[in-house]
Structures are given as structure tokens and as C-alpha cells.
Design brief:
The structure is a homodimer of 249-residue chains. Chain A is an alpha/beta fold. The first copy, chain A, has helices at residues 33-45, 56-66, 82-91, 108-111, 128-142, 177-189, 196-203, 214-226, and strands at residues 25-29, 49-53, 70-74, 98-103, 120-124, 151-154, 157-160, 166-168, 171-173, 194-195, 234-237, 241-244. Chain A has a five-stranded parallel sheet, with helices on both faces. The two termini of chain A are 24 Å apart. The relative contact order of chain A is 0.11. The structure holds a DNA duplex (30 and 30 nucleotides).
Amino acid sequence: MCSLCAGPHGPPGRVPHYERVEKVRLLVVDDDPPIADLVATVARYEGWDAVTANTGEEAVALAGEFRPDIVVLDLMLPDVDGFGVLDRLRRSGTMVPVVFLTARDGVADRVAGLTRGGDDYLIKPFAVEELMARLRTVLRRSAGPAFQRSVLRVADLTMDEDTREVRRGDRLLTLTPTEYEVLRFLMRKSPTVMTKAQILDHVWEYGFGGRSNVVELVVSRLRRKLDDTGAPLIHTVRGFGYVVRQAAE
Amino acid sequence: MCSLCAGPHGPPGRVPHYERVEKVRLLVVDDDPPIADLVATVARYEGWDAVTANTGEEAVALAGEFRPDIVVLDLMLPDVDGFGVLDRLRRSGTMVPVVFLTARDGVADRVAGLTRGGDDYLIKPFAVEELMARLRTVLRRSAGPAFQRSVLRVADLTMDEDTREVRRGDRLLTLTPTEYEVLRFLMRKSPTVMTKAQILDHVWEYGFGGRSNVVELVVSRLRRKLDDTGAPLIHTVRGFGYVVRQAAE
DNA sequence: TGGGAGCTGTCGAGAAGCTGTCGGACAACT
DNA sequence: AGTTGTCCGACAGCTTCTCGACAGCTCCCA
């Protein structure tokens, strides 16, 4: 398998909890092609249909024919700006939910207010897994009130993505944001082994320079919190990476 | 699950008394599409059926075929004005309750007279949670004189949405309007963790620019009032947001 | 119309908690 | 026994949170 590939290498076949019969259709709008492609690639890996647009014009046109279920929209576009695109989407009657991307220094102020309809936003540079998590949440909520809580479970380890409660058996764990994200990633991919590079690429912001042993460190901290009771669930695959699963063999 | 329920994620026990089987049908009439959509979207996230109209004509026509249970009506419309629409609705025999929207400087006085029938009104710009709260109240009242009180409860913290009484155990708390709204929002969403952006976006008026630590501040004030006795109920999820729930273990 | 009371948001300092770097101990494979 | 990879304690820098102080504002009442 490709060690450079950003994507997880589990066979696409792991059906997530928010399963639906049809593929989720995602439109990614960003004038920076690498970013747009990054998002689209990750989404496809989750089994979604994804298309990208690099301008506002293109976005509006594509939305019309592709009919996405959800949109990722950069607010800094060369032609029409993000808000313009949003207007035009809405005016054409689409109630499609949107997750916005914005630069930290940029329009962050004007963005306030966007979580209201159920839309959400993320500040660049973001972590891919965080974006995917938000997309899933927004999708789940837009599906109506009957949606299920999203709870990840591996053996006696559970993670409730709404309450952010993580439990090993009965014991409630207190995780820091980074620990939480790493664990969520590993649990989602379980029982597939993830390389350290993959973990780094998905959980840390793209562009993160850390050529270090951060991943090992966070895993180490996680272990202390969740593996000090009972059989270990985080396993090292020497020379390769980590995996969360019930002790095999 | 209850179509009027605060949120999609109610664990058993949080289903309000004014439960009904069918989805609430809401008609939103506002000539400003973003506002109309905002309201419609929020309502849909609560599990309601919502449609929007941007003119008086459209509104009257839609009301006929959609048969809403409740109407949100902007009084400043380009063609027929809000009062005209109301007249025509009433004359066609509908007793559908209405919540009016009006500009601050506008016709507030004349509106006051209209709220006697159980209708209500709100001044623009409003906060979405406040609007939803009023809609729920009006609906409950229109369900008949024997309507049940709506009381939110988390552990020994109770909030009576009719009397606005908030109690921690026996102790009656005196909350300011903002504190009340923030607490209501958190209680409604409990035990889901809300980000500060979500709180800001739902509880403050749309268009509020406050890029500050208002939310933190209000939470801090709330804590002093309700968490100084007994176990804390408002919890900080560092790097993420706040949640109201009984301390888990 | 003026005065007072209470509410709200800004500022900022201090506290608390999180994160990544370094480096040495340790373990696993050859 | 050497080599490579992993684990994790300690620490410093940084981010985030908390909350006192204060000033503008609104609302109410005389």
C-alpha cells in the first residue's frame, strides 16, 4: 500500500453509523486546488461522491447539476466570494447544508452566525479528520431529529461524539482535545492499522511541521489513560503504526 | 420521538409534555430570503416542516395549500403588508397562530394589540432561540387551555419556561435575561456539548458582532449563581465548549 | 426629564491546562 | 551484541479559560 497516500488504507467497506443507502454527495469549493483535492480525496475514501470547484461560478453551476447533500465552501474565492455563492445557492432554493472554511485572520468575524442554521465553519488550516467529523455531524443533524447518537465502540471502549464522553467500561476518561482526536481516528479506522504518518496527516492541521514523535507521545498519553485498566486496546505494530482493537491472538 | 422536542438528540426522559405525533408545520413569511431561510432551517433542525414565502401573495397562497400550524410573519412586506396578510388569513377562516416580526422602530405599538389572541411578536434582529421558544409557547397554548407546563430539568436544576422560574434544588435563582437564555439553550441541548460559537449564534441576535468572550463571561456569571451550591452542573470542555449535565462519576 | 438600578459587553491579568521538544531508557528484531 | 524503533519523564512556551473591574446602556419610576 502507498505510504505517501493520505488516505486510510482500510478496504472501503466499513460502513459508518450514519449509514444511508445512497452515497453522500459532497461539493468542495476552494480556489486552492491541492486543498480542494485533499478534502475530496478523503471524502471519497469514506465512500462519498465528491466533486471540486475552484471558483464561485463553477460552484454554482456544479451545485445545480450535481445536487450535493453537503457543501464545503471556502469564503475566500477569487470571483464571487463565499457569501455570494451561498446567496446564490440559497436563492436557487437549495437548503443544502454548508461547512465554511475561513482564514484565521480573515473574515472570522463575519462568519459568526453561521452555525445557526446548522451550518458550521472551520478555520484554516484545519485537520482533515476534524472537517470530516463536522461534515458528519451536520449531515446527521440535517437528516432530522430522528438521527441516532453517534457512538463509536471498540470492545469496552466507547466514545460518544455528541457528549464527547469517552469511557473504558464504566470509567469515564478525561481526554485533551488532541488525545480525543487521535483516539477518534483510531477507533473509526479500527481494526485497521494506521501509520504514524497517516495519523499525523489526518489529525493534525495540514501543513503541520512536526517532524517529531508527537504521535508516539499522544499515544503514550492515551495509553496511560485508557490502558491502565484491563487488556490493552491500543497496539503498536512495530515499524508501521498503531491500531485500536480488542487484543487478538 | 417528539417532533417538538428541543433537539434531535433527546435521551429518554427529555421529551417535553407538549408532545405531538405529527410534525409541526411552519410557514415563514419574510421578504429577506436569508432571514426566512434562517428561521426555516432552524425549525427543520428541530424536526419541523417549514416552508418560506417572500411576499404577501405567496404567503396567502402557500398558507392555503400548506395548512401551517403556526406562522412567522414579517410585518414589512413589499406588496401586501403584514397586517393585510393577517387579515386575509383570518378571513379565510384560519385560526392559525402567528408570531410577528417587526423592526424596532416599526409598528411595535400596533402589534401589541394583535397578540391578544395568543399570538406573539418579536423585534428584529432577534435571537433564533428566543424565536423558537416563543413558537413553542404559542403552539402549546393553541393546543388548548389544558396545556401542560414546559419544564426543563437537569439533575436538581429546573427551568419552568412559562413562569421563568429557575431552581437549583429548592433554591430559587434570579437570572438576568441573557443568563436565562444561555442556560435554557444549554439545558435544552443537554447532554450534548455546545461550542461557544453555537451558543453565540443561537442565543444572541443574528448580526451580533461580539467577537469577544461574552459567552465565557455569562457562563462564569451563571456558575456563580447556580454552581456555588452542590456539584457543578456547567462543565467546561476545554478547547471545545460548554455542557450542562450531571457530573458523570 | 432626571436619577437610579440593573444589565451587558470590553479589557486585561492571572490561573489552569495543553502541546511539542528533547533525550535517555528500554524493547524488538537481526 | 548491535541496530533500529518505541516509550515516556520533564519542561518550557503557549493557548484557553476565569473572573474582577468598569463604563455605557436601557429601563423604570418619580
